[in-house]
Specification:
Layout: H1 27-32, H2 38-55
Length: 57
């Protein structure tokens, strides 16, 4: 089974240009997603979850 993209169709970079404000992926993660392995996709999703958790602490 393929890991679904975290994209929520709010495709806009934050003020620093580092992250998409919708899915929180970096530009490099956005570029690589289509050819990333399942393991790489899971690592990206884990980083996003950590970032979201940190923002609520």
């Amino acid at each position: 089974m393929s890991t679904p993209s975290p994209c929520i169709n709010i495709c806009q970079l934050d003020a620093s240009g580092a992250y998409c404000v919708g899915c929180l992926r970096t530009l490099e993660e956005l570029r690589q997603w289509g050819k990333a392995s399942e393991e790489e996709k899971q690592a990206i999703l884990a980083r996003i979850e950590d970032l979201q958790a940190a923002s609520f602490d």
